[in-house]
Each structure stands twice: as C-alpha cells, then as structure tokens.
Design goal:
This protein is of the alpha/beta class. It folds into 2 domains: 200 residues, 3-Layer(aba) Sandwich (Rossmann fold), CATH 3.40.50; 194 residues, Nucleotidyltransferase, domain 5. The chain is built from 15 helices and 17 strands. The chain has a 7-stranded mixed sheet with strand order 3-4-2-5-6-1-7, with helices on both faces. Strand 5, helix 5 and strand 6 form a beta-alpha-beta unit. Helix 1 packs parallel to helix 2 and helix 7 crosses helix 8. The longest helix has 16 residues. The radius of gyration is 27 Å and the shape is elongated. The relative contact order is 0.11. The N terminus and C terminus are likely disordered.
Amino acid sequence: MKVVNSLKNAAAVDGDRIFHTFQAQDNFMFSDAKFPAFVGAWGTGKSFAGIQRALILSEESPGNMGVIFRREFTDLRDSTLKDFESYTNLRASAERSVTLPNKSVILFRHLEEIQGTMQNMNLGWFWIEQAEELDTDAQFFVLHGRLRRNVKRRTGFITANTNGHNWIYKLWKIAGDADYPLFEADSFQASAYLPEDTLKSWRELEKKKPKVYRRFVLNSWDESDAVDVIIQPEHVERAMRNDVIIRTPLRRLVSIDVARFGDDRTTFYAIEGDDKFRKVVAKEVHDKKDTMATVGLAQIFAKKHGDAESFAVDEIGIGAGVVDRLRELDRHVIPVNAAARENVRHGCYNRRAEIYVTAAELLEAGRVQLLATDEDAREELSWTRYKTIKSSGIYQVEPKDDVKERYGRSPDHADALLNGLWAFPQAKVVTRPDKYMRQRRDNSGPAVSVLG
C-alpha cells in the first residue's frame, strides 16, 4: 500500500484504492514530531490516520519494528486488527504480526502483554489506539522507553476521543511541548466524507443527549466517560466557578489529611460556610512532617484563616497522633475514620462511602465553592469509583490504595477536602466577630454582608 502527499504524486493505476483526507489527518500522518496525537470526534478517521502513519514509518526504514497497542484484547481483535486488514489488504499472522516486503514488522498487542513480551523489544515506533481507554500515562511511557531501534525516526503516537481532563489532556492539550503536537477535529470537519443522514442524526443529539453531542461530535474536552465515577467532573468544574452566599450562623473548619507514606503529602483545607453552603477559602500542602510539626503548622494555618476552632483529621495511621495532640491542646477535633462502619448513613458500606456520597450530593446541588486555582482537587475529586454490592445493594467506594495504584499518586487533596465537607456540620459556630464586614455575591441577587 502506497501513501503519498498528493494525487499528483500518486501515479494511480487500475485497481489502486485512493483515500481522500482532510487537514487534521494530513498534519498528523506526516508529522515529524516525536509524539504527535490525533484526538477527534466521530467520523474523523482516527484509525485510518493511525494506520497510514504506521505504514509510512514501516516503509521508510527497512527492518523497522512497531507495535499497535489497544487496552482490551477483544477490541484489538475485533476492531483494530480488522480495520488494519480492511484498509491495507494485509493479513496478520496467528501471532498477530504483519511482515512487510522490506522486512519491517508490525505487531498488535494489548494491555496485559505490555509488561511481559514488550520488555525486551527494541521498537522504532508505537501507536496507542483509543488511548482514552487508559486510566493513566503509565503504558505510554513504558512503550516510550522501548524506542531504541536504529531507524530513520523513533516515534510514539496516539489516537483518541476526548475524555475530560485526563492524562492526554495534560500531555498534549495544555503542556505546550513541541514534541507533543496535538491535531484535533470535530465531526463537521469531515462532513464532506460522511453521509448526510449520519450528520443529521448526530445533530439531533444536541437536544437529546447534549453531553454525548459535545464530546463525540464537537470533540469537547469538558465531557468525560464517568459512568462509575462518584463525583462527576462537570460538578467539580461548576464548583470552581461558583460564588456562594454565606449567612450567619457561620462555621469554620480546617481539614487535614496527614501524610502516611514517603511520597504522600500532608494537606490542609480551610472551609467556612453555613447550614447550606460550603466555601473553600485556603489550602496548604506540606511534605511529610512529624506529629508536633504537623500540629503546629495546622494551628498557624487555622489562625491565618478566620481563627478556625474545629479540625477534621484523618485519624488512620499517623493521623491518630495529630488527633491526640490537638485534643491535648484543647482544640475541637472531629476524627475521620474512613474504614468505620458504625453509624454510617443508610446504603453506605462504610464512612468512606458516606463521605463521598455526601460530597457528591453537595457538589451536584451547587452548594460548594472550590478554589478556582486548585488543579489537584480538579483532577483527584473524580478519580474514585464505586460499585454496588449485589447481595445487599450497599454502596461501596474503592480503597484509596487502589486509586493510588491506578494514578501513580495518592489523592491527598481530594481526601482532605472531602473529609472537611463531610465533617463541616460538626464544626463549631463562630462566636467571635471578624474585624470587618465581608461581601458575598452570586449571580442571582445583590451582595450580602456577612459578620462572622
């Protein structure tokens, strides 16, 4: 199969198949960048573009070796391999490989094979199809480390749908790295090659399924596949733009997630609010400290932000020492034990599930204002998944360690914030007035003065 830049150079003969491409496809297929990405909506020919780039790389360097990677074996077998064979008229062997006349080899592999058979391979290129299926960038960088073959170009590339502010969004959309160019297309950019009735049915989704329309037709990065996610990304985004009105009686709280392991960090959040709304007013993050240092920093933080008298503290592990020391200092402490199963709300497996359900409800109802600059919370709040225990219908949240394994770091920011939102109704009502009157405004009415 020949890939050419223009029809003038095609020298087509009878029997040749000619494919017409549009700009985003061309730019991706012929990019000289190290790690290009093509993120496109329905009908934009992502698989076609990936296959053509794979062939270009394999044909330009005899003896090259590349791998086409997909998360699930069934998707690799039933979709990726079939598309490759359909577009190229080449047939993969029983070992899922194709050898070209110049001795270049193209392999087809899936997630479970990457840590095994891939470890000793020297690749010239790799392609991850439907890269948004991967939870993290871990597999990308494993393959990245295999680019050691002596060929003209060593390159890795991906094709994907958008899926919120995930690892692809970070590496390609906002990083601004010249080695990681992003080529994007919505469905209408490929309209010249799509049936009119198909385009019509997609347009109808704008009213019937607006989130699906924005993600899969308009190629929006603000929508995600969050079926089993507890806290929806769109609710987090709204909370970061929110500006709530707080009325007396006012409560203030400092929530603390204490570092448990060497790579964890201790996180403080200052939260204030009333019986309806919660507003995050400040945040600090510290490397792991001993108990005395953590308590000292927490008290300084509380003093700076309204002289909060109440502290919500994760008491598991080293956090127990922080709880004890704050109590010795006669501070109001609300211990948080995520594993506790006594006195949890109906339908929740344990306190951790209750904490997440409570926060999800508050965020969905628009009753929380988050810090607009808190990018860590923006990411981590939607990391955790849930399941329902079939035998009892009880709602269970995955352990923190599972989240850490999947994303490569502990969700300390999310845990500190969520613990505070859950514990907030138990915080003391502020009895000492502030030195000044503060203003709260939202888009629904006039400013309201609040005296703490």
